[in-house]
Design goal:
The chain is mainly β and 132 residues long. The protein has no helices and nine strands. Strand 1 and strand 2 (24-28) form a beta hairpin. It is globular. It comes from Tetraparma gracilis.
């Protein structure tokens, strides 16, 4: 038997279910230690999309006036946002390979909701309600 190639996407430690906000959220399926991988994946860069209006896209550049937008693989689009002190994950973007890694910023119990701070939450039109 041959060894399968390493996958570009691994969300095996995450599942999606209804959340407390009336939508869907990402949750830990197993305990995850601080610093450990939560999920890794890839994105598709989008054209003809305005992420200022569409909250389901990722900010995929550091150029705010000319932002590039992307759609993520796996469970990544279901992570809800929170304040920095309450976040238990962090996403590192690799713009060159259109990939990302999400790591735990604190110990996470199985069943806990996975939360991070949206990179663009302070300035995107679609997130204005979050900043009140």
């Amino acid at each position: 038997m041959s060894t399968p190639p390493e996958s570009l996407v691994d969300c095996s430690r995450v599942f999606v279910k209804n959340d407390a906000y009336g939508g869907a959220g990402a949750f830990a399926s197993v305990p995850i230690k601080s610093g450990d991988l939560v999920e890794k994946g890839i994105v598709r860069v989008l054209t003809n999309c305005d992420g200022n209006e569409n909250p389901y896209t990722f900010t995929w550049s550091d150029d705010i006036p000319n932002t590039t937008w992307a759609c993520g693989s796996g469970c990544s689009t279901f992570y809800n946002t929170t304040e920095e002190a309450s976040a238990n994950t962090h996403m590192e973007r690799d713009f060159a390979t259109n990939s990302f890694v999400i790591t735990a910023t604190k110990d996470i119990a199985a069943g806990d909701e996975l939360m991070h701070v949206y990179k663009s939450k302070a300035w995107r039109t679609c997130f204005q309600e979050l900043n009140k």
